[in-house]
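Researcher: Let's do a round of design. I'm pasting the structure tokens now; please hold your answer until I've finished.
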């Protein structure tokens, strides 16, 4: 075999060992086989990485979702600390303003109204003449009574002379003892007749003095229920009219004038029983009226009824208010701001913190950092958006401001962090594409 032929055979069978020649070792395996194994291992590793990269994020997402679900199951609540109430609480109660002295003015004699001198709204002084009444019947009765008195006095003087004369004659036995006794009896009878006639004259003189009607105190005329020429009945009626004002169909008006003393006014207020022990004479009270927006009129509690009304369970108190300016009017409605001292600590809560249940009025507080505690409370005054709590609450309590209806004792909660003015806000978003 030639050398060329041997080379051709080697090229055709490269994987076979060449025949030993000249004492040389056989040739090693082809390097291409090792390269294939490496490629297979690499492929397996790539596939395993892909599988791991797909499963692990899902496991992490599932764990994160479980954690987020558990966190969301715990409700977040906002809490506040109650405000301490003022040591002197103010309660607002309705009241009616009344005149310090209020009196109807009647006639005490019969006749016709001759003239009146004061109309409604007139401020009069004590003893000022208000009206005059013509009383012709009383005048005639007085004249007759005076004439009867003169007759009685004349008979009395005659009986006195007769008595004295008979007593002198008796000493000489010129008259009998019976005649003397008759004379003395006639004298005593005539003296009694004179006394009776004098009393009748005085009575009619007093009736005649009632022809003039005077103001009994300083005040203002609030009503005039008569006019000139009207028939006046003593103590029964002031006439069938009231000076041009509408007349009630139920009957005639019984008074001529109506007067009210308005320099000082009375306000009667019904204080609830729970504040009755604090309502003592000497307390200050302010009055507010709709027609005097923003103004307060100062008064003072001067007396109480010292008894609870069975129907309303309230204590009637009187507040006196100075009205020298005359701005306040009797009969007006007012709100009385009564300042009552309190001996117990009170706290102020928003109405939204209250829980209304069959167990009574409750509030929810957070204890041990994350546990709900339900406690019953007793309310004092209702201020509208806020209420006063007199028991069942401490200043250190963390009160839930808006408790859900489903809140229960011992429930786990999370306290929301309140935002403060110094807290940084969220970072501003950058525009798409970056800054220039």
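Researcher: That's everything. Go ahead.
Model: Designed sequence:
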């Amino acid at each position: 075999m030639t050398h060329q032929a041997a080379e051709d055979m080697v090229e055709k069978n490269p994987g076979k060992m060449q025949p030993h020649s000249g004492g040389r070792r056989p040739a090693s395996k082809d390097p291409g086989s090792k390269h294939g194994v490496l490629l297979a291992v690499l492929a397996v590793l790539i596939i395993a990485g892909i599988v791991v990269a797909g499963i692990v994020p899902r496991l992490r997402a599932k764990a994160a979702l479980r954690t987020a679900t558990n966190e969301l199951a715990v409700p977040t609540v906002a809490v506040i600390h109650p405000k301490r109430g003022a040591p002197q609480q103010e309660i607002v109660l309705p009241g009616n303003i009344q005149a310090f002295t209020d009196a109807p003015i009647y006639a005490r004699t019969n006749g016709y109204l001759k003239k009146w001198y004061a109309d409604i709204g007139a401020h009069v002084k004590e003893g000022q003449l208000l009206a005059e009444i013509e009383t012709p019947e009383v005048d005639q009765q007085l004249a007759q009574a005076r004439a009867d008195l003169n007759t009685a006095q004349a008979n009395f003087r005659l009986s006195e002379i007769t008595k004295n004369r008979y007593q002198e004659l008796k000493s000489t036995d010129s008259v009998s003892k019976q005649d003397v006794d008759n004379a003395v009896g006639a004298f005593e009878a005539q003296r009694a007749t004179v006394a009776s006639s004098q009393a009748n004259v005085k009575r009619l003189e007093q009736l005649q003095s009632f022809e003039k009607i005077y103001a009994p105190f300083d005040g203002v005329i609030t009503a005039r229920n008569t006019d000139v020429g009207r028939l006046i009945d003593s103590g029964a009626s002031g006439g069938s009219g009231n000076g041009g004002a509408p007349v009630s169909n139920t009957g005639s008006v019984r008074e001529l004038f109506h007067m009210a003393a308005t320099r000082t006014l009375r306000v009667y207020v019904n204080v609830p029983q729970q504040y009755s022990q604090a309502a003592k004479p000497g307390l200050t009270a302010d009055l507010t009226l709709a027609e005097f927006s923003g103004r307060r009129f100062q008064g003072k509690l001067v007396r109480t009824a010292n008894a609870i009304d069975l129907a309303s369970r309230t204590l009637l108190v009187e507040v006196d208010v100075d009205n020298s300016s005359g701005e306040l009017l009797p009969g007006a409605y007012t709100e009385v701001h009564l300042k009552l001292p309190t001996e117990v600590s009170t706290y102020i809560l928003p109405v939204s913190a209250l829980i209304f249940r069959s167990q009574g009025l409750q509030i929810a507080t957070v204890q041990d950092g994350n546990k709900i505690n339900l406690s019953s409370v007793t309310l004092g005054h209702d201020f509208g958006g806020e209420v006063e709590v007199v028991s069942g609450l401490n200043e250190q309590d963390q009160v839930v401001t808006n408790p859900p209806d489903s809140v229960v004792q011992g429930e786990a909660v999370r306290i929301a962090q309140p935002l403060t003015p110094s807290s940084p806000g969220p970072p501003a978003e950058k525009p798409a594409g970056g800054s220039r």
